[in-house]
């Protein structure tokens, strides 16, 4: 805009010179000198503003550089886990998709199983969960537990004395901020890799060292029975955590092992991969009325 105004003034002055003749030449010369002075001042102001602008840009670049330098690198496993634990404190809901391949020998029986799991969970005042897998479907809302029996397509209602065996909050601990706090104490055991948009933290161990590590992560459930049947195991395994570099949310984990129980003819080859998405995308899970109305008490079966 300033350039346009200067150009208009310059054209106006030329027109005054052309119309005014020689008698006004001195006056016009003074006007031109005055205009040149204004342009000089304007140029000085523009130069100062550019310098100030460059100074502001430099400050912003310095701030960006400082912010970047404060982000932990792959060499700082403890720093990554600390930031993730802080970020996960604000999580109250999420979705999970998991795939499991499980091959094992248990009590003389050999088996090979695969399963895909989809889960939604809310951890507010009343814990809520909806899980769908190849084996079953389940709703848990506060004290209400509903499980679909795929064999006869019947919904079962589980009373609290039975449901008390299940603790929905335990299912959250593998990715909750408290669990990440525990991981921090084990940070020296992890190796971290920068995979572009996320960090991959991994632990690989053998025999009872791997057993001790996994048992300390709250990952062990009914599927991972090999850790419960013997005080000592042999074999090896790997546990991996994925942490998003933008949000520091724990976006998934992988558990892979091939283990045998000491002194018993039992072994398990397990590979599970779980991914968490839609953080804080919902705050309620509702059990459909059709499920409630058709559910049969487990005690009556």
Automatic annotation (TrEMBL):
Record's signal peptide: 1-20
A Pfam match: DUF6612
Comp. bias intervals (Basic and acidic residues): 42-57
Protein name (Swiss-Prot/TrEMBL): Lipoprotein
Region described as Disordered: spans on this chain: 23-77
Coiled-coil intervals, chain numbering: none
InterPro entries from the UniProt entry: DUF6612 (IPR046720)
Keyword list, A-Z: Signal
Biased composition (Acidic residues): 23-38
């Amino acid at each position: 805009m300033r350039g346009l105004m200067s150009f208009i003034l310059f054209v106006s002055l030329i027109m005054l010179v052309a119309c005014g003749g020689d008698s006004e030449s001195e006056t016009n010369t003074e006007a031109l000198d005055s205009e040149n002075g204004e342009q000089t001042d304007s140029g000085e102001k523009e130069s100062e503003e550019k310098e100030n602008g460059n100074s502001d840009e430099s400050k912003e670049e310095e701030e960006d550089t400082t912010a970047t330098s404060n982000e932990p690198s792959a060499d700082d496993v403890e720093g990554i886990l600390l930031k993730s634990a802080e970020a996960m404190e604000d999580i109250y809901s999420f979705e999970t998709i998991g795939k499991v391949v499980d091959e094992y020998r248990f009590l003389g029986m050999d088996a090979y199983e695969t399963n895909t799991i989809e889960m939604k969970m809310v951890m507010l005042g009343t814990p809520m969960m909806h899980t769908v897998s190849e084996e079953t479907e389940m709703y848990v809302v506060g004290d209400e537990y509903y499980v679909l029996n795929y064999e006869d397509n019947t919904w079962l209602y589980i009373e609290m004395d039975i449901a008390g065996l299940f603790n929905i909050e335990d299912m959250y601990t593998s990715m909750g901020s408290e669990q990440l706090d525990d991981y921090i104490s084990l940070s020296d055991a992890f190796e971290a890799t920068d995979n572009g948009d996320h960090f991959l933290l991994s632990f690989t161990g053998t025999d009872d060292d791997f057993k001790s590590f996994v048992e300390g992560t709250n990952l062990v459930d009914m599927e991972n029975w090999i850790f419960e049947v013997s005080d000592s195991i042999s074999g090896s395994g790997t546990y991996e955590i994925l942490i998003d570099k933008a949000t520091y949310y724990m976006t998934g984990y992988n558990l892979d092992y091939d283990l045998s129980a000491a002194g018993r003819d039992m072994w398990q080859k397990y590979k599970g991969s779980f991914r968490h998405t839609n953080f804080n995308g919902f705050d309620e899970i509702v059990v459909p009325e059709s499920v409630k109305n058709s559910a049969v008490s487990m005690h009556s079966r």
